[in-house]
């Protein structure tokens, strides 16, 4: 009775049913990191050297060893199978690593674009501020302007009063 009541509750999800046909669902991020490590290794000189050594030893063993110890005769069918199997796993792993790199490149490109837009907006703001300061400075009296105005006033005063500026010793006019 309690099981039936628990099963009929609509506010709780039903447990997932496992079937024999359900494939395992590995952590995609962990699998992606694993595939990137393998793809990075497959693209190195170390991998090429090791692969060349293994193939050379394989062929040398199957040519030079006594017939009873040879495990892969001349057309090297087992070697071909092993290399085909390695290639059939390497290609999808490399593609998966490339897809992950493409996703990272997209994110980086979007961040670069946003950063560029912010830089343009900041530059436009600073340009407007500099223009406003220039305009404001055009309306402000500068030191040279004040000096020239004072010199002009001094000349005007000297022209009005040729005897001097009128100090304490001078008699009043």
Automatic annotation (TrEMBL):
- Pfam families attached here? DUF1003 (PF06210)
In which domain of life is the source organism classified?
Bacteria
The annotated region (Disordered) lies at: 1-24
Q: What's the protein name?
A: DUF1003 domain-containing protein
Recite the UniProt keywords alphabetically.
Membrane, Transmembrane, Transmembrane helix
Task: Output compositional bias ranges, type Basic and acidic residues.
Answer: 1-10
Tell me which InterPro entries the record gives.
DUF1003 (IPR010406)
Which segments cross the bilayer?
Answer: 47-64, 76-96
């Amino acid at each position: 009775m309690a099981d039936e009541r628990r099963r009929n509750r609509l506010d709780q999800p039903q447990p997932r049913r496992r079937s024999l046909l359900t494939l395992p669902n590995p952590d995609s991020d962990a699998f992606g990191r694993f595939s990137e490590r393998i793809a990075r290794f497959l693209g190195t000189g170390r991998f090429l050297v090791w692969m060349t050594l293994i193939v050379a030893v394989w062929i040398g063993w199957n040519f030079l060893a006594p017939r009873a110890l040879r495990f892969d005769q001349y057309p090297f069918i087992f070697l071909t199978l092993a290399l085909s199997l390695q290639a059939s796993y390497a290609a999808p792993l490399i593609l998966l690593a490339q897809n992950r790199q493409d996703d990272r490149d997209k994110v980086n490109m979007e961040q670069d674009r946003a950063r560029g837009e912010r830089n343009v907006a900041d530059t436009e703001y600073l340009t407007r501020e500099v223009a406003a300061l220039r305009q404001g400075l055009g309306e402000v009296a500068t030191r040279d302007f004040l000096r020239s105005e004072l010199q002009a006033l001094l000349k005007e005063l000297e022209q009005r009063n040729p005897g001097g500026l009128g100090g304490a010793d001078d008699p009043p006019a």
